[in-house]
Write a structure and sequence with these properties.
By secondary structure, this protein is mainly alpha-helical. It is built from 18 helices and no strands. α16 packs antiparallel against α17. It is globular and about 55 Å long.
Length: 414
């Protein structure tokens, strides 16, 4: 219980950083003189560095365990948020977000590693969803509370307070988590790298990968970046109003993640739950594409629906985990997380360039965001179509916990 509490705290910090830009984006843009493309790259730099850092963090997780990986990497986030709070130029802020992304890299993967070692495979998705739901407090703190704090103290002083909290959580991770050095700790670095690359050779994972790229990417393009500017540009919503709407979306994300995990535990039909939830998240995107200026309340309910059904990442990880041998859990989940976070970076970056082009073409704010929602709906619908061809269960009907290296090699070679 103590360990789950510490993991929830660490995950809360990671979630806070993923979504904090959206609420204070107009203020940051004005202070640092950012255009749409720069703002998109600034937000996506967290996810891109997060994704790239999955390779070293995955190796550290399998070599030294989650305790040392989480506690040591998080100090990069402390340094990054400190740099962000004093940034006066775009590239300083960009470097700061990259440091934060590196610092948060092993948090979720390490959390899943702890859960995988503490609980049975049948309870993996449910416990993971539970931790995410509780850890979503950090996402909530990045909405109305951050907006109100930024209005009171300014966004720079607010981020300095976040730096102190991050340092506290880093210390708690070191002293509050048990040592979990895995059996693969003595593997040579080259062997571990080849094992990580081998994950991508498992053909049964290939139809799932587009969902990793698109599902969370589309969700965070809205929650983590464009929802705030959209509400400000189209409906003239102030910081507090934006924070309230995004808080409602964050509550929906936390609730939806827990409910989807509960539903998966009851039905034992992970693929089916992922498909239905993805389609239900796609529908409000289509509505926003048709009615981008219908009103802030309409937009809020669309965001709530997207949040309620769009955060199916734990289920995707549970689905993929059934193809992995236990010795590869750290690297496998790190690789899949890297793909997912890379997808966020690509979607946010591409959407930023799209809005920059739309602005240069002198389209109205409503038309610009209409194009954005069309793009996001198209990306998600394409991923859903490919995911339909995925295998329902792992290579073996046995639980993933009994698979060994030979099983993985047989899966990797078809």
């Amino acid at each position: 219980m103590r360990e789950l509490t510490v993991l929830c705290a660490a995950y809360s910090i990671s979630l806070f950083y993923r979504g904090m830009i959206s609420v204070i984006a107009p203020e940051i843009s004005a202070d640092l003189a950012l255009n749409g493309a720069q703002l998109g790259l600034l937000a996506s730099s967290f996810f891109l560095s997060f994704g790239v850092a999955q390779i070293p963090s995955g190796i550290v997780l399998d070599r030294f365990g989650g305790r040392l990986a989480i506690a040591s990497f998080m100090w990069f986030a402390v340094l990054g948020i400190g740099l962000f709070s004093v940034a006066t130029h775009y590239y300083q802020a960009l470097a700061a977000m990259m440091l934060i992304g590196i610092g948060c890299a092993p948090v979720f993967t390490g959390t899943m590693l702890f859960i995988g070692r503490l609980f049975s495979p049948e309870r993996f998705a449910y416990i993971t969803a539970l931790v995410i739901a509780i850890g979503s407090l950090g996402d909530l703190l990045g909405t109305t509370p951050l907006g109100m704090l930024a209005e009171w103290l300014g966004w720079r002083s607010s981020l300095r307070l976040v730096m102190l909290v991050t340092a506290l959580v880093a210390c708690l991770s070191f002293f509050g988590l048990s040592s979990d050095r895995p059996a693969t700790a003595n593997e040579k670095l080259g062997v571990m790298l080849r094992g990580m690359l081998r994950i991508c050779s498992i053909r049964h994972l290939w139809p799932i990968l587009p969902m990793f790229l698109a599902s969370y990417g589309v969700l965070m393009a809205i929650r983590g970046l464009w929802s705030g500017p959209y509400l400000a540009d189209v409906f003239a919503a102030n910081t507090t109003e934006r924070g309230f709407i995004l808080m409602a979306m964050s509550v929906a994300m936390a609730s939806g993640t827990f409910l989807l995990g509960l539903l998966d535990r009851k039905l034992q039909q992970t693929k089916t739950v992922v498909l239905y939830s993805s389609v239900l998240a796609l529908l409000p995107l289509i509505l926003l594409a048709y009615y981008p200026d219908k009103g802030s309340i309409f937009a809020m309910w669309c965001f709530i629906t997207i949040g309620l059904f769009g955060f199916n990442y734990p289920l995707l990880m549970s689905h993929s985990r059934s193809f992995l041998a236990p010795a590869y859990y750290g690297r496998g989940m790190a690789m899949l997380t890297a793909i997912s976070m890379g997808g966020v970076g690509v979607v946010q970056g591409a959407s930023g360039w799209l809005l920059k082009w739309a602005d240069s073409a002198q389209l109205s704010a409503t038309e610009q965001y209409q194009m954005l929602f069309i793009l996001l709906a198209g990306i998600l619908s394409g991923a859903i179509a490919v995911y339909c061809f995925s295998r329902k269960h792992g290579y073996s009907d046995q639980p993933a916990a009994v698979m060994d290296h030979k099983n993985l090699q047989s899966v990797a070679h078809g």
